[in-house]
Amino acid sequence: MNDDQKSGKARPADKEDKATSADQEVARILARVEREPIPQRLLELAFKLQKALRDAKKAG
User: Fold this and answer.
1) What Rg, from alpha-carbon coordinates, does the chain have?
2) Which of 5, 11, 40, 48 could form a disulfide with 1 if both were Cys (CB 3.0 to 4.6 A apart)?
3) Is the dihedral of CA 21, 49, 9, 11 positive or negative?
């Protein structure tokens, strides 16, 4: 664990990596929709989360 991680301060690159990782995780979950049915509301929230993550990544 580096000093930034200990202090809770993320470097800009770390934030981008986390945003990318989160976006990939959301995409993985959305891909499961084809294999496993999930409640419609959960699907809507997942799409909103994915959009918010992409917007944050562009803004960052």
Assistant:
1) 14
2) 5
3) positive
Answer whether 23's CB lies under 8 Å from 50's CB.
yes
SS3 content of the chain, % helix, strand, coil (to 5): 75, 0, 25
Contacts 24+ apart (CB under 8 A), 53-57: 53/19, 53/22, 53/23, 53/26, 54/23, 56/19, 57/16, 57/19, 57/20, 57/23
pLDDT value of residue 48: 92
Tokens, residue 9: 């301060």
- pLDDT average per 10 residues of sequence, the chain (60 residues): 51 71 84 75 89 88
According to the model, what pLDDT value does residue 9 have? 55
